[in-house]
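Here is the promised in-class demo. Please do not try to memorize the tokens; focus on the logic of going from shape to residues.
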């Protein structure tokens, strides 16, 4: 599994929104500047986040975006599934039910299942709040 720039940038965008969550909307231009990402590309990404209800847009001179959920309620897995689709490492694990005709004699099925469980175990337990905390810790260690 390889996460695309869309998924990575969506996480950076959401971390930025959570970090600058002071009750006022945050503009795409400000996020783009801080994250060194094209504002045009961020507009495409935030559109899907907005449609999914992860962010809320506000129009006008003081407009921008705010998070719709608390950072503790939003997991990395939720964001990546929206931007990347299914996160399973192999096609036979993409559906709830594994319909692979070779499943019973497949020597690698258990490997892929363990990898899939590990990926989900990390992505579905790490929250936006965790990423914000890790970013703050990283910034502190850079000062030392």
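The designed amino acids, position by position:
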């Amino acid at each position: 599994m390889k996460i695309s720039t869309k998924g990575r940038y969506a996480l950076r965008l959401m971390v930025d929104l959570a970090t600058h969550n002071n009750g006022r909307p945050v503009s795409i231009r400000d996020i783009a500047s801080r994250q060194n990402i094209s504002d045009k590309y961020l507009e495409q990404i935030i559109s899907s986040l907005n449609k999914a209800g992860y962010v809320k847009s506000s129009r006008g001179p003081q407009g921008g975006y705010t998070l719709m959920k608390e950072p503790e309620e939003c997991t990395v897995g939720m964001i990546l599934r929206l931007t990347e689709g299914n996160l399973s490492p192999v096609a036979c694990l993409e559906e709830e039910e594994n319909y692979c005709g070779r499943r019973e004699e497949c020597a690698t099925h258990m490997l892929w299942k363990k990898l899939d469980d590990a990926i989900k175990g990390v992505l579905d337990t790490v929250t936006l709040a965790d990423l914000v905390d890790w970013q703050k810790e990283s910034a502190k260690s850079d000062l030392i």
